[in-house]
Write a structure and sequence with these properties.
The protein is α/β, with parallel strands linked by helices. The chain is about 40% helix and about 20% strand. It has helices spanning about 15-25, 35-45, 65-70, 90-95, 110-125, 165-175, 185-190, 200-215; strands at about 5-10, 30-35, 50-55, 80-85, 100-105, 140, 145-150, 155, 160, 225, 230-235.
Length: about 240
């Protein structure tokens, strides 16, 4: 069923790009394709209707990681990285560039579609529809932070800070359930809307990046606390 949602697929391997296109088109998405990082950035500038990026890491010229870093300077569009590398450190590096999700090649079509739907659900939830009046502000204040759910904006000492959609969702989950400790598995299932099937460092990487942005000293956090052996919380 057509849903008019545009996704940009970037891979220098034409066969993989074509297969991903088939999976997405069959599920109702509109697909654009680029074969390298430079073309990707150009197409994003020319096609503001693009709502998600599926990005291969290993490409000639500007690789996927550098593309991700560049995009994150100006946009919070969901980015799903594709890579043949499955080690935790590779995933940590990928998430460190601001990516929202990471999928290892080869992948099952249903897994790809599940990841896409999860990211699109989050993205469309924070994008206001045209002609719809803004909803009433829903703000949470924690120390020097102000978290505005409706606008999807976080300010520190009155200055807006740039969070990825995943980082915002983790922060809002903990901030709206103060004093409750969430395990990494709980955070993953609540934020990614997926079950945890294997141990990974995904949540910990995002927590680390989130602390670097919201804490005065990320090595001695005053807002986002670790409860050793259990998980994470934000205190009242």
């Amino acid at each position: 069923m057509e849903n008019n949602t545009s996704i940009l697929v970037v891979d220098d391997d034409k066969e993989i790009a074509d297969l991903v296109e088939i999976y997405l088109v069959n599920d109702g998405y509109h697909v654009l394709k680029a074969s390298d990082g430079e073309q990707c950035l150009q197409m994003l500038a020319e096609h503001p209707e693009v709502r998600m990026l599926i990005l291969d890491i290993m490409m000639p010229g500007i690789d996927g990681l550098e593309v991700c870093r560049t995009i994150r300077k100006t946009s919070n569009i969901p980015i799903l990285l594709l890579s043949a590398k499955a080690e935790d450190m590779d995933k940590i590096v990928g998430f460190g560039t601001g990516a929202d999700d990471y999928l290892t090649k080869p992948f099952h079509p249903l897994e790809l579609l599940a990841r896409v739907k999860s990211q699109m659900k989050r993205y469309t939830a924070i994008m206001p529809e045209e002609g719809v009046a803004p909803v009433k502000k829903e703000e949470i204040e924690i120390q020097n932070l102000t978290i505005n759910k409706a606008a999807h904006v976080v300010k520190k000492n009155g200055q807006e800070i740039a969070l990825t959609p995943i980082e915002f969702d983790i922060l809002y989950l903990l901030a709206s359930n103060r004093d409750r400790v969430f395990s990494t598995d709980e955070i993953f299932e609540r934020v990614w809307n997926e079950k945890v099937y294997e141990v990974n460092n995904t949540v910990m990487v995002h927590i680390r990046r989130l602390r670097e942005k919201i804490e005065d000293n990320s090595r001695s956090p005053k807002i986002l606390k670790t409860v050793w052996g259990v998980g994470y919380k934000i205190e009242s």
